[in-house]
Amino acid sequence: MNLEKNKITKIEGLNTLTYLKKLELGKNKITVIENLSHLENLNQLSLEDNQIETIADFPMFKNLMELYIGNNYIENVKEIKHLSELPKLIILDISGNPFTKEPSYRIFILFFIKKLKVLDGISIEAAEAQLARETFTGRLSDEVLETRLGGVTAAEVKILDLSNCKLRDFDDMFTAQKFPQLRELNIGNNLFQTLRCIGYMPHLRLLNMTGNKIDSLIVPNSNILENKRGLNGLLVRSSHGVYF
After folding, report:
1. Where does 113-240 have alpha helices with state H?
2. How far apart are CA 73 and CA 31, in angstroms?
3. At residue 145, does pLDDT exceed 90?
4. What does pTM read for this prediction?
5. 130 and 204, same domain (yes or no)
6. Coil, strand or helix: which one is 194?
7. Looking at residue 233, what is its pLDDT?
8. Is residue 10 part of a domain?
9. ∠ at Cα 162 (192, 129), nearest 5°?
10. How does residue 242 score in pLDDT terms, banded at 50, 70 and 90?
11. Residues 6 or more apart from 44 whose CB is under 8 A from it?
């Protein structure tokens, strides 16, 4: 069904079209993606050239393989995570949205939507998919934090357990700016090889990094030694020894 260029502002009146496989709604004035969840057989959906700012409520289409939503008003690349549960999505065109000006937007999308074959008209090469995995695997994501904070914000948390999260080395993952009230931090049994993940945290009193692969407490240009002045306990166990 082609409904392009009709000055449509609201998606409605499609309730009976349960067997519809292709729907084109491009070049309208749509601001909200709604009233589409019943289209269980939809394979292709076109929403390009509208006025959509968010895809937070995007339907979980089980059969959708192609989605065209370019030239809208989506500003945050993290919105793409709302498409990560679409099991058959292999072609995505999201070009022309404000966030696509960010240099790393493609590898961010490829990390969260791993089954994609074509993104913005360009086939995905194995090297680009590998770069996405290397860049984002092991980062402290919002999703990881949400599951461990238990409803408390990062600014309020005082005791944080992030053990067994497969986190790996990134500079200043933990700082006083991100976690101003943090007193106890457990990041044991992850994939850390150095302490460069710890930024300046003057209020930190207990740091547990056991079960990682740390060889030394000495990190060039690191704040870890500055933090140690206030620490009551520092435990770092690796295959090369235990440091207190």
Report:
1. 126-136, 142-149, 224-228
2. 9
3. no
4. 0.72
5. no
6. coil
7. 55
8. no
9. 60
10. very low
11. 21, 22, 23, 64, 65, 66, 67, 68
